[in-house]
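tool=predict chain=A
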Amino acid sequence: MNKMKRFLIIAMVLMLAMTMAVPALAAEPALGSITVRNAVDGQTYRAYRLFDLSLDASGKHYGYTVNPEWNEFFTTGGGQNYVAVDPDNGGVTLTKATADDLQKLAQAAQKYAKEKNLTALEPTETAPELKFSNVPLGYYLVTTGAGTLQALDTTDVDAVVYEKNTAPEIGKTADKTNAAIGETVHFVISVTKGGYAWGDYVIKDTMTGLVLKPETVKVKAGGAELSADNFITAFTDTTLTVTIPEKILNLRNEQDTDFVYPAGTKFEVEYNAVANKTVDMDNTVSMEYKTDPTVSTSTPTHTVKVANYEFTVKKTDEEKHPLEGASFELHRLEDCTDAAMEFVKTENSYRLPNTAEAGSAKTSVITAGEAKIEGLAAGVYYLKEMAAPNGYNKLAKPVKVEIIEHINDIPGDLYFGQAFDSQGKRLAPTIKIDGQTELNGDFVLTVVNKSGIELPSTGGVGTTVFYVAGGILMAAAVVALILKKRRSR
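tool=predict ok
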């Protein structure tokens, strides 16, 4: 029994000795991750640890010290004016922390890292949500090879930064490719948000031959209409400026985990404008934005053109000699029971009235000779002759006039899908007269009046023939009666 006790005591002593002989393992350093959202495929991303971070168990107390690789930068280099280092414990605090200051610090740090060929972390996952995994906690600079991103952020377990300077894009559409003067056109400006917005988006729209209806302006984000206090408008009859503020573009959700309007969000500006000019009308838009707090740039311009059309009525006889004194009306219905279209007359031109001519004298009667009718949309019209020149017969039924527009069908062309060629010149329409294609390039509708022979009238040669014939018959009857009496005697 005593032997057994001695054995157990020796075993326990040996186990205790072995335990004491095992060296104490150092605590594993805390690790985190950096996620880059909206990362651009094909770009090279790097992460540099500027400060080391000590984080307490509560996650509320941060202790920063300069990463030894960056000592020179923060003591005598480009970062010295942005930080204060405690001489007793090496603790770091930022002395300049506005968005502008941090951007300048990041740019200087990126330049320093490149010059000194400092160690950088490489991502473990690729775009569009690129990630640096298992990185020591710290305050990091994240860059792209093209320099479009310089983000500073603390990696306290998991950090998220955003590709800030992906360029926004702008485009524009209209609900019709042609419009008669006085007709309303609905326009939509579409802005695709880039990454982080360093400033406001300022959308500038200029119209030629169109008049804005300011009360129709509205702005949508992601399909939902924004309230009027979330954007700013300024306008004249022919210009519109819409400003979407930086604070709206960069609005964060309640959890502060993402943007309310992340990169790729569609902002749409919608409004109506009235066609006000003959032949072609331009609507050009561009947008100013910032690539960093101090540098403004503009998107390329985008133009939408809207066309209208015209044709000329020319009155002739059958030998193509011009005739004066005819009058016409233009209708949209085949039976011409609708109200005749009204025009403003200038010399031999009849044009649909524009917005400035609401109170001007107008006429629905087109007199020809030769008259040009302008400002029409593509479509079908009926030209009804109301009076013919003296000595000629009025047309028995209206003339059908069909204007058929031609659309640019070259993909990638500047005016693809519009009624204009690559140089912005309106494509000639096809005009059909009573179903037959009118081939002349001046779009001249020749209306021919015919005259008839003069009909007989009272006292004319037709009646005289009957009088003469009757007189001869009566004379013959008298002669016959006299001869008969003589024989009877």
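Residues 459 and 465 are 10 Å apart (CA to CA). The chain is about 15% helix and 40% strand.
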